[in-house]
Amino acid sequence: MAIERETMMSNRDAVVGFEMAAPHIALVTLCRPQARNAINGDVALALERVVMAAEADPDIWAVVLTGAGGQSFCAGADLKQVSAGGMAGLFTPAGGFAGFVDAPRRKVWIAAVEGFALAGGFEIALACDLIVAAKTASFGLPEVRRGLVAAAGGAYRLPRALPRGIAFELLATGDRLDASRAHALGLVSRIAEVGEAIEAAVGLARHICGNAPLAVQESLSIARLSADLDDAALRAASHAAQARLADTADFREGPLAFIEKREPVWKGS
């Protein structure tokens, strides 16, 4: 995996950047600031590869996803490619739109939003587990203004993330939601000063990485299903997750560290 990391980091022309921001924390960057980090076929393929690499790397426990340039997280689909008949190229078989919104993920993914996250860009943020946003950030699904549907998850993930009436209004009007209101409504986990969204997101990731990584992954795997399964199914999933953890070194390390009055040393195994 180290070779793949080195390869991704060494390509200065990469449309998706990859680096280690801190121990166990990867920073993934959409690198098309001249196009407001819009998604084209190259980005979709590259982001899918990065997701697969990060998910397969046991040393990575959390990932921060952001957009280059500080003006836009992501403007959604590259309309030049769409108008040229290349819409299908924005999707991958495993990851869906941008190679991301439908990608199977167990690690914690945190969107760090500077500027705006619109259309598919907002859908990418909604597909993350947490959103950290700068004070001036804004979010919107303007698809209806172009005769489209937010079909990359926005039409169903937004009502799960916001009160029904507000989500329906945003979907029906295409209006934007500013960061402060998004934070008050619980869509955004943390607000940062302008230019500091990445730093704040990495700080949140550090806090998360103070916990047992497999326990975090198992907990989130259940939480992600909470809107789709009934209590009986979720209870069964919870018991199965606990059984898997019982066979790990970290399951034994947590109670032992508590008894010995020291900080636990997690191994992720």
Concise account of the structure shown:
The chain contains eleven helices and twelve strands.
Question: What is the element layout, followed by pairings?
Answer:
Blueprint: H1 2-10, E1 16-22, E2 25-30, H2 41-56, E3 62-67, E4 72-74, H3 79-83, E5 91-92, E6 96-97, E7 108-113, E8 116-118, H4 120-127, E9 130-134, E10 138-140, H5 154-161, H6 164-173, E11 176-178, H7 179-184, E12 190-192, H8 197-208, H9 213-223, H10 231-245, H11 249-259
Parallel strand pairs: 2-3, 3-7, 4-8, 7-9, 8-10, 9-12
Antiparallel strand pairs: 1-2, 5-6, 10-11
Helix pairs in contact: 4-5, 5-6, 9-10
Features:
269 residues, alpha/beta, 2-enoyl-CoA Hydratase, Chain A, domain 1, 2 domains, 6-stranded mixed beta sheet, 4-stranded mixed beta sheet, globular
Describe this structure in words.
The protein has 2 domains: 2-208, 2-enoyl-CoA Hydratase, Chain A, domain 1 (Alpha-Beta Complex); 213-259. The protein has helices at residues 2-10, 41-56, 79-83, 120-127, 154-161, 164-173, 179-184, 197-208, 213-223, 231-245, 249-259; strands at 16-22, 25-30, 62-67, 72-74, 91-92, 96-97, 108-113, 116-118, 130-134, 138-140, 176-178, 190-192. The protein contains 11 helices and 12 strands. With 269 residues, the protein is α/β, with parallel strands linked by helices. A hairpin with a 3-residue loop joins strand 5 and strand 6 (96-97). It is 41% helix and 18% strand. Helix 4 packs across helix 5, helix 5 (154-161) runs antiparallel to helix 6 (164-173) and helix 9 runs antiparallel to helix 10 (231-245).
